[in-house]
Amino acid sequence: MKLRADQTGERGLPMPLWLQGAIESAQAAVISALIVIAPIVAVWATAGFQDSRPDTLARLAGQAWLLIHGVPLLLETVGAGPAALPESGTLSLTPLGLTLIPFLLAWRAGRRLARASYTDQLWQALLGSWLIYACFGLTTGFVCRVPEVGVGLWTAAFLPLIPVGLGMVIGARRETGSWSRLIGVDAVAWVSRAGQNFRWAGSYLGSAITAALVALMATLAASAALLAVDLVIHWNLVIAVYEGLDAGATGGAVLTIAQLGFLPNLAVFALAWTSGSGFALGVGSQAGPLGTAVGPLPSIPVLAAVPSGPLDFGFVALVVPALAGALAGWWFLRAGENHFDEWLSIKIRARSFTAAASTLVLGVVIGSFTGIFAAALAWTASGSAGIGRLTEIGPDPLRTALFVAAEVGIGVVIGYAAGPWLERQQELREVDLGATGGQ
């Protein structure tokens, strides 16, 4: 981007990268704020708020903007009655679907900044953009604080940088095509100067992490498919809750948008459900494949689809992470980066022992990485809905990590061990097809 000296089309002074980063960041903040304001204005236009003063609606929009960026809101209410004591809680359940809005805007900004920067100058644009976005968050948190809803200023300044920073870095990486160009370091040349064992270990761990991501995405995709099937099966209950609320066209649309915002959270809940660890819908509750025991739930249509009571065949869902692990094990075999097996074969001549040991270690490594990634997803998707029973919502990260790691690890061992047989079967099919085509 260049600053124009006049309207003749001649280029003037180049725009400083930090200023261009600040402009891109400001655009992302303003656009995401307008998207948040739109449904609030729609509800206000239909007289859906008891307090319709402009300052109240503006603070509500600012609080919603902070929430979709992962900033927790500190709630404080006073119960009914003269002797009622104040209650306090934290609203920290982030709608990950709406968090994609600033993430995608930042992804676009990262690509634009990468095109405008040299390899060793991108940090200037990123630093300027992050400083401006932190100022937006700090200002919004300061303006939107009220006695009923508190906002931590430090969290309001820095937590929005997580989705925005990730979006910009990933967008810049997408534009540059490699991490080496992004950070200005030739990683290939640096690795080539390292020892053979170091290169083997790096390739082994890199492929194991990729295989863990394969297992995680396969499990998440299958869990999301099960969630969709569950919604279809219980669609009549979901519609009944909608009809009971009688929120009107605008209220129903806003409610649907809010539920769509939590759809990625529900997909992570489904992942924890299929792993057997389950998830909580309130203090002391648990929903899992072997049964569901939850208390009264709020009148939210999507919650009507939660499976209830004992499930005779719920244990079948535990196969999903194991199948995903088998897919990851097969992928690792095809990648051909099992250097630990090669190193172990050099040290120990008993092939039957080295093959079994390296396969078990591979299952532990990939299963552990998958469990860590699943724990991160569970921690991101869970939180508190404020005050009362619903202060615990979502899967427990540690429990989810243990269940996913164990099941994926078992699947990896099976998939890697069965991989050679699958490869031979595929080769035989190709030979048969080639022979048939030749005839």
Strand composition percent: 5-15%
* Helix coverage percent: 55-70%
Overall form? globular
How many distinct domains?
2
Q: Describe the strand arrangement of the main beta sheet, using strand numbers.
A: 5-3-4-9
Low-confidence stretches: 1-8
Order of helices and strands: EEHHEEHHEHHHHHHHHEEEHHHEEH
Keyword list:
globular; transmembrane; membrane; alpha+beta; two-stranded antiparallel ribbon; four-stranded antiparallel β-sheet; transmembrane helix; 439 residues; 2 domains; 10 strands
Descriptive report:
This protein is of the alpha+beta class and 439 residues long. It has two domains: 12-183, no CATH class; 194-438, no CATH class. The chain has 16 helices and ten strands. The chain has helices at 17-45, 54-68, 96-116, 122-143, 153-158, 161-176, 179-183, 187-192, 196-233, 235-245, 248-261, 263-275, 319-335, 339-347, 351-381, 397-438; strands spanning 2-4, 11-14, 73-78, 86-91, 149-150, 280-281, 286-288, 291-293, 385-386, 393-394. The strands form four sheets. A four-stranded antiparallel β-sheet has the order 5-3-4-9. Residues 1-8 have low confidence and may be disordered. Keywords: Membrane, Transmembrane, Transmembrane helix. The chain crosses the membrane at residues 25-45, 91-110, 122-143, 149-172, 208-233, 253-275, 313-333, 353-381, 401-419. It holds the Pfam family DUF6350.
